[in-house]
Design brief:
- The protein is of the alpha+beta class.
- The chain is built from seven helices and eleven strands.
- The strands form three sheets. It has a five-stranded mixed beta sheet. A four-stranded antiparallel beta sheet has the order 8-9-11-10, with helices on one face.
- Helix 2 packs across helix 4.
- It is elongated.
- The model has no long low-confidence stretch (mean pLDDT 93).
Length: 217
């Protein structure tokens, strides 16, 4: 069965560019972002991993660990890191999981269960391995994104989505379209007007079901 929002993510033990990782233990009390890609030494993915490396301070500010996964092995990951750092201009400080047997890809529903790579795989053979998961400290799926092979991921948007997830965890609010940190937020319909005034103070009732308020600090 496919993973859904609020499912507990599969636990696994796998080798990575930073050694052996037991996934749930590695997450610990942090948020986590698991992002996958078709293959090492590919152009779009090299730029993506560089973008993730550039955001190291932003992930840390949000108590969030990031981890990549590839169908290649650790030796290739270690060699590829040099290219990522050259293009991104930042050190790769996050682990890259080795998934040559597709164990992780299948567990996270990145590939059909019966999918197998040929002996000499190309990026085309594993193009569906291109997913982003935002995972909470409770090890539950909070957000999922799936991209086609030739569309590079916008990690600024993933950072924005993470901010929205974390805000919704600490305050009973939602974020409107195109929301950015610091902008007004939506009071959830489950909160009465009386409770909303007590929690948030003044709010703008644009519609009976659409009430806007300042972003909680």
């Amino acid at each position: 069965m496919a993973l859904r929002i609020n499912d507990v993510v599969p636990d696994f033990t796998a080798e990575s560019s930073e050694g052996t990782i037991s996934f749930h233990d590695w997450i610990g009390d942090s948020y986590a972002i698991l992002f996958s890609h078709p293959k090492d030494f590919t152009p779009v993915c090299t730029t993506e991993f560089g973008a993730v490396a550039q955001l190291a301070d932003e992930w840390a500010k949000r108590n969030t660990k990031v981890i990549g996964v590839s169908v290649d092995g650790v030796e290739d990951h270690q060699k590829w890191k040099g290219h990522i750092e050259q293009i991104g201009g930042a050190k790769v400080t996050f682990p890259i999981l080795a998934d040559k047997d597709l164990k992780i890809s299948k567990a996270f529903d990145m590939l059909p269960a019966e999918f197998m790579l040929p002996d000499a795989p190309t990026p085309k053979d594993s193009e569906t391995v291109r997913v982003v998961y935002i995972i909470g400290p409770d090890k539950k799926v909070r957000l999922m994104m799936t991209y086609p092979m030739f569309v590079g991921r916008n990690f600024g948007e993933i950072l924005r989505a993470l901010d929205g997830v974390q805000l919704s965890d600490r305050a009973e609010v939602a974020t409107p379209a195109n929301w950015e940190v610091g902008q007004d937020v939506v009071i959830r319909t489950s909160v009465s007007n009386e409770d909303a005034k007590e929690r948030f103070g003044e709010f703008d009732e644009k519609l009976p079901y659409l009430r806007m308020t300042k972003m909680p600090g």
